[in-house]
Amino acid sequence: MVQTIFTLCYDALNSVYYLGGTYNSNNLVLTGILGQTLPPSIGYDAFIARFQDNGGADYKSLEFFKDSLSKAVNSNVIAYPNPSNGNFNFVSVKNETIKTITVSDITGRTVYIKSFENETFETNTNLSFLPASTYFVNISTSIDNYNIKIVIIK
Length: 154
Prior knowledge:
By secondary structure, the chain is mainly beta. It is built from no helices and 14 strands.
C-alpha cells in the first residue's frame, strides 16, 4: 500500500492551502469516493490536517489548533500549535524551501538557530529548553524572510 500524506492550512485571512487537493469557493474539496467537502471553521484562525491512506478510509484524523498567532499577516509560513510548551511545527504553506530558522528572545538576543541543507517545507522544532516567554522567529526560505511571534507556556 502506498501511503501519501498531505498538509492543509486554513487561516483567518481566508487562505486555504492543501498540498495535493483543491479549494473551491468556501469549502475544501477532498478527493475520495464520497467527494466530501470541508467547510471553514468559524472562530479558528488556522488548522493543520493530515490525510492518509487508511485502508480505504477517506481520512484518519483532523486536529484543530485555536490560536491567533499561527500565521503572520502576508506570510507564507505558519507556526503551530501556538502557544505551545515549546514543541512547534513550522510550515511553508506555498512550498518555499525553509533554509534557516532563527529564534530571538524579547531583547533581540538569538537563542536558537537551525539550518537545513536538504529541501524542507515543514519541520518540527523542540524549543522546550527555553523558559516560558514570547519569542520572535525569523524563517528564511528560498524566496523570502518571514517573522512570526511564538509563545512558550509551561
